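PROTEIN DESIGN WORKSHEET
SECTION A - STRUCTURE
LENGTH: 336
TOKENS:
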């Protein structure tokens, strides 16, 4: 059978990324131009700056993806692009570029939901995932728990009522003066500190459902900081460690409850927060004695990349689910 080569393009936030993936599995190139340093000086992503950076970088990044894969533009079978959710101006840069490419090469355009891409990142590296599976989606903008029948079919068991997990990391890091992006900054500080020296709430852990809430934890962390500061007892690293522990315990316990209720043998993790080392090891630790296998993408495929978009695009390609050249970009999620 002929190999299927898909070009993926991702510009939903602050990474301009392009990748060529063969048969939905084999990454031939994976180019990521990160704007993190530029946005760090503002303490977070500035949408207008992100769009302009994408415009400057997109052609170079796509060229590099072809060069790394050793391919010509004409070699690809389709162009997959993230069209939701994300910063709309940023999405439009990738989408417009993808449309132009698809039209000029006379290849199909494939519309990929960014979060489906994050979930698919697991399929790029693991061939032994047993479905049904529970999937914990934890990114900067979303947090949900899914029950997946297979890679294309799932139901949402629960989601956050307020802040996403990554958003809580980012906001707390900023408040603690740890910088941006917050997740890696808190993880690093927490390694120098110790959880449990003070107690922060494990929000919704006592509930028998799969809903999350991180806004209260964020406020409790801020109040704790003020209290300790007043008493002259503030150790930022200890507070970061307790915040991280409080958040990941809820993620892990809810995932385990869902896995046992639905009798699944696999838990998948997806999204930027899945790069958190403590979360990964707590999930491994708590599943060790049970018949549950944990799957996470490798660190570089947890955060935003275009290989996951090309991979998910392949799933649409083989089903002939092509997008029209009228495809639009949407800032919020139509499903998940
Ligand atoms: O998936 P992602 O790259 O972008 C979105 O789709 O939102 O996720 C970005 C989020 C940010 O909130 C960032 O702070 C968080 O993932 N993140 C982490 C870690 N690395 C990235 N959170 C906790 N620990 C990490 N090591
Ligand atoms: Zn993402």
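SECTION B - SEQUENCE
RESIDUE ASSIGNMENT:
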């Amino acid at each position: 059978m002929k190999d299927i080569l898909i070009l993926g393009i991702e510009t939903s936030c602050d990474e301009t990324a392009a990748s060529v993936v063969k048969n939905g599995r084999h990454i031939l190139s994976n180019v990521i131009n990160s704007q993190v340093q530029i946005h760090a000086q503002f303490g977070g992503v500035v949408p207008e700056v992100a769009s302009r950076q994408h415009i400057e970088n997109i052609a170079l990044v796509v060229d590099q993806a072809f060069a790394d894969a050793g391919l010509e533009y004409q070699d690809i079978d389709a162009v997959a692009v993230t069209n939701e959710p994300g910063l709309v101006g940023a999405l439009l840069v990738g989408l417009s570029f993808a449309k132009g490419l698809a039209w000029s090469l006379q290849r199909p355009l494939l519309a990929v939901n960014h979060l489906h891409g994050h979930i698919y990142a697991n399929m790029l590296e693991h061939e032994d995932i047993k479905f049904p599976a529970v999937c914990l989606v934890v990114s900067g903008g979303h947090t949900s728990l899914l029950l997946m029948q297979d890679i294309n079919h799932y139901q949402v068991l629960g989601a956050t009522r307020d802040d996403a997990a990554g958003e809580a990391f980012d906001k707390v890091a900023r408040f603690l003066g740890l910088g941006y992006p917050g997740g890696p900054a808190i993880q690093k500080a927490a390694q120098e500190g110790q959880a449990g020296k003070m107690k922060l709430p494990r929000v919704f852990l006592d509930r028998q459902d799969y809903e999350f809430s991180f806004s209260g934890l964020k406020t409790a962390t801020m109040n704790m900081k003020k209290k300790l500061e007043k008493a002259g007892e503030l150790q930022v690293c200890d507070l970061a460690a307790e915040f991280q522990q409080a958040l990941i315990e809820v993620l892990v316990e809810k995932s385990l409850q869902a896995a046992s209720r639905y009798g699944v043998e696999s838990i998948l993790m997806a999204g930027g927060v899945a790069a958190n080392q403590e979360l990964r090891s707590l999930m491994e630790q708590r599943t060790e004695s049970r018949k549950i296998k944990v799957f996470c993408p490798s660190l570089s495929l947890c955060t935003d990349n275009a290989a996951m978009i090309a991979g998910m695009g392949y799933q649409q390609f083989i089903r002939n689910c092509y997008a029209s050249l009228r495809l639009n970009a949407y800032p919020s999620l139509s499903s998940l």
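SECTION C - NOTES
Residues 114, 118, 139, 271-272, 304 surround zinc ion (ligand 2) (CB under 6 Å).
The chain has a mean pLDDT of 96.
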